Amino acid sequence: MTAWLFRDDAYRTTLEARVTTADARGLVLDCTIFYPHGGGQPGDTGMLVREDGTRVPIIDTLKGETRGEIVHVLPGGFAGPFAGETVELELDWARRYAHMRMHTACHLLSAVLPYPVTGGSIRRDSARLDFDMPAAAADREALTAKVNALVDAGHAVSSEWIDEAELDRREDLVRTLAVAPPRGSGRVRLVRVEGVDLQACGGTHVANTREIGRVVVAKIENKGRQNRRVTIAFAPGSDPVVQSNWNG
Ligand SMILES: [Zn+2]
Hints:
With about 250 residues, this protein is of the alpha+beta class. It contains 3 helices and 16 strands. The chain folds into 2 domains: about 5-90, Elongation Factor Tu (Ef-tu), domain 3 (Beta Barrel), CATH 2.40.30; about 95-235, Threonyl-tRNA Synthetase, Chain A, domain 2. Helices cover about 15% and strands about 35% of the residues. The longest helix has 20 residues, at about 95-110.
């Protein structure tokens, strides 16, 4: 069982942790700030520093088969770190922050397009959501303006927890089955964009919509009679994302 510290503090970039399992999949730690791939958001990457100062890249982060377990994936050929070692995690912050900004932008997009979401995917510089909606409901320029108005308004983003039983009574809090947050622990996290959006979500978000920066609705594609794929991207000149030291 790994303590999922990114849930309480998405801005934390370093952490001391202990290796509990080291096997062919990678490393399981007692706690982590690395987000595991899920809910349409990619797994985090970064570095791990051993006690002797050796730096080991983490090339992906995944959920393990055991509930609550998070696996930090190493490139092939690394012998160690081993179980019991204390290591320092360093998150690839530029990449993660881009995911946080794009992910939060998706919440704004789903607030201005009040249709069921059937899928979604977040990348470093763009994101897409699939909506169950008719063709006429979406206009690229109008949507861009609406989302940017919410960005500029500087809405606070926060999280809170509810019981799964309560979530079952509140269907309105689950906008999408495709990117639904993990269940089974008895509690589910809600993400609130103050005055704009409230939904169950397990991802990482910025603390204020202004941090997203200007975005554009880049594409609206027809993916079937009732399915529109909407792609957003950072607007040209919008707060360029710092180039990462690692990859992505
Ligand atoms: Zn979210």
